[in-house]
Design brief:
- With about 400 residues, the protein is of the alpha+beta class.
- Helices cover about 15% and strands about 45% of the residues.
- The strands form five sheets. Strands 15, 16, 17, 18, 19, 20 and 21 form a seven-stranded antiparallel beta sheet that branches. Strands 4-3-23-1-25 form a five-stranded antiparallel beta sheet. A five-stranded antiparallel beta sheet has the order 7-8-13-10-11, with no helix packed on it.
- The longest helix is centred in the C-terminal third of the chain and has 31 residues.
- It is globular.
- The two termini are about 15 Å apart.
- About 0% of the residues have low confidence.
Length: about 400
């Protein structure tokens, strides 16, 4: 084995380091936003709470969130909702419902949420499979009118086992629909097999929310109907609305909630406001504007003094080094959800994992450096040219070293 001289060894090391830094910078430059994480006291697993201001900058399915260290390396994580539940006794299997519609395409699996609880996780049991599929989740209260909850949820491949089945947790915006439908677009491929679906009641009962910054409220009363428009300061993930109603003392009104996206008005759900119950509306929206339509009938309009918007609690779990510093990145619409080995070691994570909060959201400086305001030029091509030059230099040195070895061998 040939021993490199110190000069060539130094050149190769610097070249490799340069290539690594350039690739790292290229990987981060398309993420628009960042949020620093506090330095942890000791090495271990930590639960990172995602605040509404950060989630507002991310894609609806949170697939563009990344954790990076000071060197720009992506750090593995899993969503907290994917953790296996310890108490198997609290698992309730939902009844399967046979109500396939003629408009459905692909594999469908419908279950009834008989707990009546608001859910943001559903555990499904599947026959072992190693194929890649995505599932759409929709909800209904009457098996006739269906509302979108979450689209393009990736199904995991089975972990190697001898049981022939495996469990997966699906994460989605909190909702309390009576029926949930899983729809898989198989695209003329062999369908996958759902065995059952259910929920851990202890988990569902402790579902928590984070308050979203207050927005602007306007209302209009017309033709026995009240229209309340809630304009938020950003494109927040909204999972619960709490209406603060001061009058009348007794009321029972039908209400509809709409999401406004551009010029489109999308119905999110219908519910009932009742003075004997909590005036909460559970929805699944990623928007900066909502319209609440209250049908008053022959009654006087409700006095709604304010509306509080909430996001269901979102968090990541990652193994952090106490000697490192980390940031969260988001705001990249073209990337897919990462696949990390950490998901196979979820059993190693304790229930009492320490919780940390990220700092304020700010523009990603690496992204800004590639988008100068005046010139408006994209330096992506220059970065790749630099990478090619560095790779060419590395190849040249390698060939030169090979020739020297061959020459010495001939001598």
């Amino acid at each position: 084995m040939m021993k490199l001289n110190p000069r060539m060894n130094k050149i190769l090391t610097l070249t490799a380091l340069f290539c690594g830094l350039m690739l790292s910078a290229s990987a981060q430059q398309n993420f628009k936003y960042q949020a620093a994480l506090p330095k942890v006291d000791s090495t271990g697993f930590y639960r990172i709470s995602l605040q509404p201001a950060f989630v507002a900058k991310a894609k609806a399915d949170l697939s563009d969130i990344r954790i990076v260290d000071a060197k720009g390396n992506f750090i593995p994580y899993i969503q907290a909702g994917s953790l296996p539940q310890k108490d198997q006794k609290s698992f309730v299997v939902f009844n399967q419902v046979d109500a396939r519609l003629s408009t459905d395409t692909g594999t469908t699996f419908i279950v009834e949420n008989k707990t009546g609880l608001a859910l943001d996780r559903l555990w499904i049991k599947l026959q072992n499979t190693a194929v890649q599929r995505k599932v759409n989740l929709v909800g209904s209260d009457d098996l006739k009118q269906w509302f979108a909850i979450q689209e393009d949820i990736p199904l995991q491949e089975a972990v190697v086992n001898s049981e022939g089945t495996y469990m997966q947790s699906l994460s989605f915006p909190a909702s309390n629909y009576r029926y949930l439908k899983l729809l898989v677009n198989d695209k003329n491929k062999t369908p996958i097999k759902f065995l059952q679906a259910g929920v851990y009641t202890e988990y569902a009962a402790t579902l928590s929310y984070a308050l979203i910054s207050p927005g602007q409220l306007t209302r209009a009363d017309s033709n026995k109907t009240t229209y309340i428009t809630l304009k938020l300061n950003d494109n927040y993930q909204v999972n619960k609305l709490h209406l603060n109603i001061t009058a009348p003392k007794y009321f029972k009104r039908d209400v509809s909630v709409y999401q406004i996206t551009g010029h489109d008005k999308q119905l999110l759900g219908e519910a009932e406001l009742n003075s004997t119950k909590a005036t909460d509306l559970l929805i699944a929206a990623k928007t900066n504007q909502l319209i609440i339509q209250i049908n008053n009938g022959d009654n006087l309009p409700l006095t709604v003094t304010s509306i509080d918007a909430y996001q269901s609690a979102e968090s990541l779990i990652s193994y952090l080094d106490g000697k490192q510093t980390y940031r969260l990145l988001t705001g990249e619409q073209t990337v897919q959800a990462p696949e990390y080995d950490l998901k196979f070691f979820a059993d190693s994570i304790r229930d009492n994992t320490p919780r940390i909060n990220h700092e304020a959201v700010s523009p990603n400086t690496a992204y800004q450096a590639k988008q100068p305001a005046k010139a408006g030029r994209d330096y992506t091509a220059l970065i790749w040219i630099a990478i090619v030059i560095a790779a060419g230099l590395l190849l040249f040195l390698t060939l030169k070293m090979t020739k020297e070895v061959k020459k010495k061998a001939e001598e």
